[in-house]
Specification:
This protein has about 375 residues and is α/β, with parallel strands linked by helices. It is built from twelve helices and ten strands.
């Protein structure tokens, strides 16, 4: 019995592994990128995120984790830019190990150009290097409100300041090494301050050329070491012509930059209130694009169906550019996990939460196998 049982057991194992591999290959051909984007946790939350990776992301066949790190890391190249409580290299390696074990690619994000402040707080780069500020004449308010007289949403650094890239490139290199990745997400979304008339370097410059120049500079630095650049796509869309407005698209004339940046930049196309089909625009311009929902499950499903339709209904030259879906989370990791596991009441949102969207989206994605 033992001699016949062991080969039978091995055969069963081989069959199960082969079946899983076949399902994985089928899903990869339908939806190559199956992503999840969230803020990096605080150090005390690393183990919880690792558990979530193992028990929630992996079984759902998520294969890409965009981790919004920013200054939540103990940088050695520029320790002055660390948050007061920040992830250690050991913490990063825990996340890397969990992702590698589950076939998940980690893409760390540090917001570049825009998002150098939030509400009434200046982020670390401009706090430590105020000379990089594109709009030093705009003072941070004690209490933030929108709209405001300065049209302040988030501060930007000056892309033409001669000292800024030495520092941000060092952060990029270090965070990519820490997370052992060949891709980096630079943010680049919602840039409202650019080519300010009072900036001695940028004043009077073409905003699209400035934006494109910064994207290209970041791209080229990464390319030297074989890494890919990912960015959010809103600044590359004409907000007036499309009617998408100043948040999901550009009202400050950065959108012509789409014809000035390298075509191997990966575009993260986000729309949260309607399933606008701008992924087609990016693909027609020659870019690989992923669609990014947030907190509305029905919109996420519409976007998923669109993505599959785009892949199936396009020419061979186009269909491979429609890469897949990335569920986004715009809260801290701890808050998301509390909501996901039932610690946050869902009722006021009527089921429209990032964790609802994640569950519904990936339930549908896994039916594609």
């Amino acid at each position: 019995m033992k001699k016949t049982g062991i080969p039978l057991l091995f055969s069963m194992i081989i069959f199960m592994v082969s079946s899983n591999a076949s399902a994985q290959n089928a899903l990869d051909s339908i939806l190559p990128v199956r992503g999840f984007c969230i803020a990096a946790p605080m150090p005390k939350g690393v183990d919880s995120l690792v558990t979530f990776i193992n028990k929630e992301l992996a079984p759902r066949k998520v294969n890409t984790l965009i981790l919004r790190v920013d200054y939540n890391y103990q940088y050695t190249s520029h320790p002055e830019l660390r948050d007061s409580i920040a992830l250690s290299k050991t913490d990063a390696k825990k996340i890397v190990a969990a992702c590698r074990a589950n076939g998940i690619k980690v893409i760390p994000q540090v917001n570049l150009l825009g998002h150098q402040s939030w509400a009434n707080k200046t982020a670390n780069l401009l706090l430590k290097y105020p000379q990089f500020d594109e709009t030093p004449h705009v003072k941070m308010p004690e209490k933030y409100v929108w709209p405001n007289a300065d049209s302040l949403y988030c501060k930007s650094y000056c892309p033409l300041h001669p000292g800024v890239h030495k520092i941000v490139f060092a952060l990029m290199d270090e965070i990519c090494d820490a997370f052992e990745t060949d891709a980096f997400h630079a943010g680049m979304d919602e840039v409202f301050y650019i080519a300010d008339t009072r900036c001695p370097r940028c004043g009077g410059k073409d905003k699209a050329e400035l934006f494109a120049g910064e994207v290209t500079r970041i791209h080229d630095h990464l390319a030297v070491s074989g890494k890919k650049l990912w960015i959010w796509g809103d600044r590359l869309i004409d907000g007036y012509t499309t009617g998408l407005g100043m948040w999901e698209a550009s009202h400050n004339n950065t959108y012509p930059a789409i014809d000035m940046i390298p075509k191997d930049v990966v575009i993260c196309d986000w729309h949260y209130e309607r399933p606008d089909k701008t992924a087609v625009y990016f693909a027609m311009k020659g870019f690989n694009v992923v669609t990014c929902p947030w907190r509305n499950p029905s919109i996420a499903l519409s976007q998923l169906n669109d993505m599959i339709s785009f892949r199936n209904g396009s020419t061979p030259e186009m269909n491979s550019r429609f890469r897949g879906m990335v569920q986004t989370v715009w809260s801290g990791a701890d808050g998301f996990l509390r909501g996901y596991y039932g610690g946050t009441e869902n009722t006021p949102s009527g089921g429209n939460t990032p964790w609802d969207s994640f569950r519904v989206l990936y339930q549908e994605i896994n039916k594609l196998q």
